[in-house]
Amino acid sequence: MDYIPYARQSIDEEDISAVVDVLRSDWLTQGPKIVEFEKVLADYCGAKYAVAVSSGTAALHIACLSAGLTKGKTGWTTPLTFAATANSMLYCGAEIDFVDIDPATLNISVPALKDKLSKRHIKPNVVIPVHFAGLSCDMEEIYGLSKEYKFSIIEDACHAIGGIYKGLKVGSCYYSDMTVFSFHPAKNMTTGEGGMVMTNDEELYQKLTRYRTHGITRDPKFMINQPDGSWYYEQTELGMNYRITDIQAALGISQLKRLDQFNAKRNELVNRYDKAFSELPIILPPKQEDIFSPFHLYVIRLRLDKIKKTRKEVFDFMKNAGIGVNVHYIPVHLHPYYQRLGFKQGEWAESERYYESAITLPLFPLLTYSDQDRVIAALCKILN
Ligand SMILES: *Cc1c(COP(=O)(O)O)cnc(C)c1O
To answer: Which residues are registered as beta bridge partners of 4?
Structure first.
């Protein structure tokens, strides 16, 4: 029996010819496709600016740098995310801390955030809410707190491209300073590797473009000295080479045309799962009325009190049935590296409790009904 992966990209002939066209053109990188990709995604999200980079992690890193995170500053996020969210703040030399999740949404708990803000004498300079599995965080509330406590907001929307929060596209940055996307093949659209930072702030936009390319500027407006001549450029801060290629950008432009279709298909498959699982002893993925989630992941939580099996037994049964289950995520603070930094088990109890019971099931636009039925049958078999 064929193995069903938990995630898979959707590539069609149009994607392939868009990439091949770039290979025949003059520009493999730093060319017009990158500018076009930024423009179409900014338009799609309703944001003013977009900066394309080599990965979602690179996007998080330059967003943190542009928000002013350095040694002596502090950033907060939730433990229920991919390690890159927290790592990006550490790259800047900043201190980090975590805020627990709300088990009802699996996103940052606004009451826990409020509580921590009011009690801690070290306030965050940056907060990174993660739209877990695609469901937007309560951005209006978090934005309100950012005004009161003066922190910047970077949305980690690596799961949420195409999502809609209270009528606003995720990435519009209406309630944040910047929003970050990833185009890894497991995500809702892909460029192979790639990422993007969205913003409405021109100053942030200028910083992002400099950090992407070595901290170099060619615009006299941003130079410290008078240009020596028309060849002149200046490195004004320590940046990286985080550029994406035109080859990747062309794939991104082509994929974006089908993003809404991909996300509609994901939602259709989610509804099929939900219906099939309504009687099982599991907690279904959260949904919210005023939010359209593009469902990057379909995560169930086992009601371990009601089933006579461990999560590992259920997981292994599914794996042995040829089904690519996964676990998103091991809470960041439990990784040995973070334990060495002093983060203790037990402090973010909801994230840990979630982790004990969570399993990610296969979900991607090309998942066929018959393959999905195999997943459903296997889960029903092990849980009944
Ligand atoms: C995928 C992901 C990232 C990192 O993106 P890459 O493109 O793989 O570097 C960061 N945060 C979250 C929540 C992600 O899912």
So the answer is: 323
